[in-house]
Amino acid sequence: MQYVLGLGKTYNPHPSSHLRYPGIARIAQAIERLKESPRFQVRVFFVMARDILKAAKSASSAIAVHKKYTVQSTGVWERIRRLLAIAPERSTGIPLNSQYRLPTPGALPPLSYDDPVTIPAGDIADNPYWKRDTRRNYPQLSTVSQADAVGLLTVGSQAAPKDDVLKIGEAGEKQLVAVKEQGQERGLAALFEKDKNAVQGVLGANGLPPSPCNLNTIPQSSQSKYEIDPEHGYPEVYPCRTFV
After folding, report:
1. Which CDD domains match (predicted)?
2. Which tens digit of pLDDT belongs to each residue from 161-170?
3. Are 218 and 225 within 8 A, CB to CB?
4. What is the pTM of this model?
5. CA distance 228 to 217
6. Is 98 buried (19+), middle (13-18) or exposed (0-12) by CB count in 10 A?
7. Alpha carbon distance 192, 153 (integer Å)
8. The domain containing residue 71 runs over which residues?
């Protein structure tokens, strides 16, 4: 019996070679004794049984040949094939011409059928893809430039316009254009130099800037938007001391 040593070399445990390879000879003798032990034979039996169970499980989950759309043998030739084949449920892979890609792509005239499912997307008039792209329809960030801030501080907003400053009609439109151009060219610094009290109407109490809008619909400030029941949070009397 030969044993593989590595790098393509083998060792034949001949008695004359024991003098040259005493360590390998002892390993070969240990392997022979291990093969004769009943524990080793039982382990080999269990490994073989496990492999057989795996093969049977994979074979039971295979789809039957007669259910596949492939060319298969029939009659006595099918019996011979199943007897000699390693995997009888494995098909030939040759598709049936009578059922493969029929009707062929492009064989039907395009005007012979209607597809009502794609009516909104199929209309190319004023229907760009970015309007129908729901995957990328995430909230966009809104930015306010210095020109916008100058216009808001000068003439106010649509919700709170400054009627004493904003003119009516075409004069008001020209005024908005002029204010926007001034904000783009010179920014907020020029507005503060011209009118130091322009920002006073926007600031809150004690000169603090305006706070963002409150998305919490609960009117009472004492109530919280989130309510945690005792089952999923801490109860009012928590059984643990807190050291301050």
Report:
1. NuzM (cd22849)
2. 777 777 777 8
3. yes
4. 0.33
5. 18
6. exposed
7. 10
8. 62-104
